[in-house]
Design a protein that fits this description.
The chain is of the alpha+beta class. It has nine helices and ten strands. Helix 1 runs parallel beside helix 7, helix 4 crosses helix 7 and helix 6 packs across helix 7. Belongs to the FPG family.
Amino acid sequence: MPEGPEIRRAADSVEKALVGLPVLEVFFAFEELQGYEPALQGTNVRRVDTKGKAMLIRFDNGWTIYSHNQLYGKWMVRNAYNYPKTNRQLRLAIHNEKKSALLYSASDIEVLRDEEVDMHPFIARVGPDILSEDVSEEQLLDRFQSKKFYRRKWSSLLLDQSFIAGIGNYLRSEILFVAGIHPDLRPTDCSAEQLEKTAAAVIQLMKQSYETGGITNDFDLAMKLKDKGQKRPQYRHWVFNRGGQPCRVCGTEIVKTIAASRRLYFCPTCQNR
């Protein structure tokens, strides 16, 4: 499943393609949405927002298209009406005279009035979004120590979209490694210094992943490894997907485990309990 940085990058691409030119046509695959097609034709896209893993395409007539890629959804931006050869099913298409923004395979799509967006069940419950809102380390620290969250294990907490929006499986492992937090710990088990490192890691890694297209390893180190011939999956992360390989910091073998029904990677030395 794409995580917050991937959705924000997709939103940037969709926004660049659609803003500035009138919409010629909108296509919805789902019959219950097809009645909105005439209302959106001839409008202009004002901007494209994200909230965690959800995308919000805002039109100048007060309507917003909400979409969530879930596991298989994928956005593609092409020249106008130039459809790719794919086995995926087209769910949504927005065309102007130059570009087409195409959403394949996703099933979670709705059309909302602007004033309804904040009341949408997903939007209403999701936590702060590092990539679309001004979120400080101090605000995250308050969240870490709140009664709602402070007694839950980090390994499940970081995947809870009501805690922080947009964190998924690879970011969970990477944040905990950079913060030096063992995945079995809870915020209440951590020192003030550990909590501060975690807040900094959340903001830094989400922004770095967005800016670099998913690289969470030290960027200079990643580029050195790339120059030495390593492929992207080999140099991309600190620990994620590196089970059995040496830690980049201390050389200890990276451990792969299962937490919250999903794979998690950590260094037992750098993240000692």
